[in-house]
Amino acid sequence: MKTLDSYNFSGKRALIRVDFNVPLNSKFEITDDTRMKATLPTISKILKDGGSCVLMSHLGRPKGGPEDKYSLKHLVGPLSIMLGVSVKFADDCIGDSAKEMADSLQPGEVLLLENLRFYKEEEKGDVAFAEKLSKLGDVYVNDAFGTAHRAHASTAVIAQFFTDKVCGYVMQAELDNAQRVLDNADRPFTAIMGGAKISDKILIIEKLLDSVDNLIIGGGMSYTFTKAQGGNIGKSLLEADKQELALELLEKAKAKGVQVYLPVDNVISDGFSNDANRQIVATGEIPDDWEGLDIGPETIALFSDVLSKSKTILWNGPMGVFEFPNFAIGTNAIADVVVKATEDNGAFSLIGGGDSASAVNNAGYGDRVSYVSTGGGALLEYMEGKVLPGVAALD
């Protein structure tokens, strides 16, 4: 795999797959620019070499054609400020106008293409569409790790039309950090798994049981474990058909000598809103009309003790409904202790994208952990041992 530092882009036009799938508010203002900032070093390196950049990305989930709210034109201003370059914009990602703008690019210039997903061919991995995109650059650079697990036209299929295929800095860092956790983890190694569903995390949990010393389980998925062990969970989130699986995972962990930590108390609510009544109860003792929305103080103390002694930490998934401030206390507390373990104890901490990354970044901790992944789904699939089409295409 060619890396960015091993390639000189002087006089080259780089066609770069970036992940600019950023959240926008009702005024089309970016509310989290983490993914855009992550790609800046890759773009800057190419420009510094004397190359030019054609950037392609998707944004949101448009339904069958162009939609103004999903147009990448909303990113042109902020991106120009970030790069210190007046970014040009093509109102299409293929066609004559996009080709003419790409062909006329001078060294040091940047062109942003319109949303790839305005064409259904992108997600279908259409070869003809990929070939049209490939005409816009001399060298292909993939820096969109967050979409590397999808065999889309711009992430995997397009590579066959290039002799020179290069791995961007984001992609390289994601792979290096994931590999470090998988192959070279310092002990004790603790994985924190949260989020709503066990079904989303079965494969990664089973894979991690071969390498971790401790497994912490929180968030919505923990209630299925509690129910499976005979506890009362009220109206809490439950995957009824996964209770047997939950018990099997606990048995596998025990057989492999992995210590599993589940919540010992929960913050519960009589309604799914920030302002609902709440109280703290022991795990497994939730009244019928109440639901668990966060881990309680005793659980925070238990999890914190384990994490403070850990040398490698992988975290994927929040501890509760962190979108509600009153039920974000557990998630924020875990973020705090992961930062302390990193800064005070020299632990290596990898935050596994998605909601975990949002929680850490929202708390202002993004630069105080070892690495925050930009690709939740892609990272999990890579760590599960699956081949990522976007990575394989660069080999």
What does the model show?
This protein is an alpha/beta fold and 395 residues long. The longest helix is centred in the last third of the chain and has 17 residues, at 329-345. A hairpin with an 8-residue loop joins strand 12 (265-269) and strand 13 (278-282). The model has no long low-confidence stretch (mean pLDDT 95). It contains 14 helices and 18 strands. The chain folds into 2 domains: 4-172, Rossmann fold; 185-383, Rossmann fold. It has helices at residues 34-49, 76-83, 96-103, 120-124, 127-134, 169-183, 202-208, 222-228, 243-255, 297-308, 329-345, 354-362, 376-383, 389-392, and strands at 2-3, 13-17, 52-56, 88-90, 110-113, 139-142, 165-167, 189-193, 214-217, 232-233, 259-261, 265-269, 278-282, 285-286, 291-295, 312-316, 348-351, 371-372. Helix content is 35%, strand content 17%. The strands form 4 sheets. The protein has a 7-stranded parallel beta sheet, sandwiched between helices. It has a 6-stranded parallel beta sheet with strand order 11-9-8-16-17-18, with helices on both faces. Strands 13-12-15 form a 3-stranded antiparallel beta sheet.
Q: Radius of gyration from the CA trace?
A: 23 Å
Write out the strand line-up for the largest beta sheet, numbering strands in chain order: 1-7-6-2-3-5-4
Low-confidence stretches: none
Beta-strand proportion: 15-25%
Number of helices: 14
Q: What is the distance, rounded to the nearest whole angstrom, between the alpha carbons of the first and last residues?
A: 5 Å
CATH class of the largest domain: Alpha Beta
Average pLDDT rating:
95
Broad shape: elongated
Q: Helix fraction? A: 25-40%
Structural class: alpha/beta
CATH homologous superfamily heading of the largest domain: Phosphoglycerate kinase, N-terminal domain
Looking at CATH, which topology of the largest domain would you report? Rossmann fold
Q: How many domains?
A: 2
Number of strands: 18
Mind describing the biggest β-sheet?
7 strands, parallel
Architecture (CATH level 2) name of the largest domain: 3-Layer(aba) Sandwich
Main location: cytoplasm
Binding site for (2R)-3-phosphoglycerate: 35, 117, 150
Family: Belongs to the phosphoglycerate kinase family.
Enzyme class: transferase
